[in-house]
Amino acid sequence: MVSAARFTGRVALITGGGSGIGRAVAVRLAAEGARVAVADIRYDTARETAEILEEAGAKALPLAADVSDEEAVRRMVAATVREFGRLDVLHNNAAALGREVYGRDLDLTHMDVEVWDRTLAVSLRGAMLGCKYAVPAMRDGGAIVNTSSVSGLLGDTDHAAYGSAKAALTSLTRYVATMYGARGVRCNAVAPGLVLTDVARAVMTPERLAEKAAERVLPHAAEPADVAALVAFLASDEARCITGQTIVIDGGTTTHRPEHAIRQASTRLSFQK
Ligand SMILES: NC(=O)c1ccc[n+]([C@@H]2O[C@H](COP(=O)([O-])OP(=O)(O)OC[C@H]3O[C@@H](n4cnc5c(N)ncnc54)[C@H](O)[C@@H]3O)[C@@H](O)[C@H]2O)c1
């Protein structure tokens, strides 16, 4: 059962909160009592998320911020504290997933160095900057949750920049946890496999969805709300003894030997015959 009081009196700041997982986390934390600052490089989408929260009776603050920009991150944290008086939770969730960055993160031997730099600037430097300014603002301690990915745990034939940035987030998570644990600041990460956000649904072909299903142990793919439930748990006092961890949420995609996926795929093919 969800405790309605887990975030009463608390203030959360979510980056990349204008859509997908970030929006689901905003909705979840607000439903559990948090006042929520929703930051996104796209102010229109941050405002949309804030409106959803306010329509549900919560307090929300939409903010425009490019998390790769130090001054923008400093202002984002300052605006949150100015509006709500404190900061308890930071969710470093933004990533450059558009066609110009993630979409060009393909064969390493032909990769533009700008693709590499922008990927790391948003996912890794952005999270570092978030920690840099949020930790001093967490006067009563707090919780940071970074969004990593299973791409940071395993190799693949594309997205080396994205995977490397996400892998480095695991390390940043451990360092921040170690540096500020004594001040009551916890830092953890979530590492999702496929999450069926609106964007993911729009770009995944039926064939790709079937491939992803064959990789999993569980029949169902994660929805943004599933990741939000995990982020909320890690950000709450129920996780008060958990820090420095990267928790995988992937329906079992990374729990088994590759043979399992191959067998699953062939079983499905023989079903279809
Ligand atoms: N959807 C998945 O299958 C999946 C799987 C594993 C990990 N993730 C991770 O989850 C997080 C959220 O992704 P999502 O799937 O919800 O995608 P999404 O594209 O819906 O959300 C990403 C958000 O980040 C914002 N953003 C991009 N660059 C930014 C910047 N420089 N500063 C501030 N905001 C910026 C975008 O505008 C967008 O609102 C990302 O870190 C992504 O890597 C997603």
Automatic annotation (TrEMBL):
Annotated Pfam families: adh_short_C2
Residues in Ketoreductase domain copies: 10-202
Family as reported in the entry's similarity comment: Belongs to the short-chain dehydrogenases/reductases (SDR) family.
Keywords on record: Oxidoreductase
Protein name as catalogued: Glucose 1-dehydrogenase
Residues in the signal sequence: none
